[in-house]
Here is the input.
Amino acid sequence: MIRFEQVSKVYPDGTTAVDGLSFEVAEGELVTLVGPSGCGKTTTMMMVNRLIEPTSGRILVDGEDIAGIDPVRLRRRIGYVIQQVGLFPHRTILDNTATVPSLIGWKRGRARERAAELLDLVGLDPKTYGSRYPAQLSGGQRQRVGVARALAADPPVLLMDEPFGAVDPVVRERLQNEFLSLQAAVRKTVLMVTHDIEEAVRMGDRIAVYGDGRIEQFDKPATVLGTP
Ligand code: ADP
Ligand code: ADP
Here is the structure.
């Protein structure tokens, strides 16, 4: 579903962020990218939705070289969840969740219906929370809205950059478990960046272990941990 072929990224200042990455993520697979800060995880992920362009190599999504896909069209096929979910502060939770469907031309009623379904799916009752504003939610709840919004247009691919990094450990574990149940139902192809090895192990079908611009190991959690 996602395939990297010899992908490198050198930033204009000469920093090599990733160097000759080749790997594949299967349809419906959740791969966690783990490793210390600065080793190229975020760069890897942002090349998939063309927020960053590779210097060399190519990336295929669903067999298609993404260099030939209009970035705006590409991002409709790819959901994106980040640590500081950028919700629009002056829009309600329901409207925030309906943003993407509206942008891609769904009728308002259908977009809002879909948004309510998704809020339900991430454990936020739309009747209670739909009409609130982002500042009236807890950090954990805002992350849930971030996930709902990323899923709104039903993209086959989901990119997550430290999605649960900004909440306390207890909430984080709850969000991780919730996301795993959700993923069991929706089966997205997921790339998820984390610097937390426990999270990588708990969440990943496979783990890409990064070290300085390269993937040093790419395997199932048990193998990465050395427990057969
Ligand atoms: P990670 O997500 O693993 O923390 P990043 O992909 O953010 O790593 O960064 C990889 C390397 O590229 C780091 O050395 C970082 O400083 C560098 N880098 C990231 N973004 C830029 C940029 N816009 N310009 C120059 N260097 C960058
Ligand atoms: P979580 O475990 O999801 O992080 P919290 O324990 O932080 O939740 O919040 C508990 C409850 O308090 C939630 O139902 C949330 O709606 C409410 N709440 C949190 N922050 C605010 C706020 N700024 N305004 C109104 N309600 C809030």
User: Anything to note?
Assistant: The CA atoms of residues 202 and 221 lie 8 Å apart.
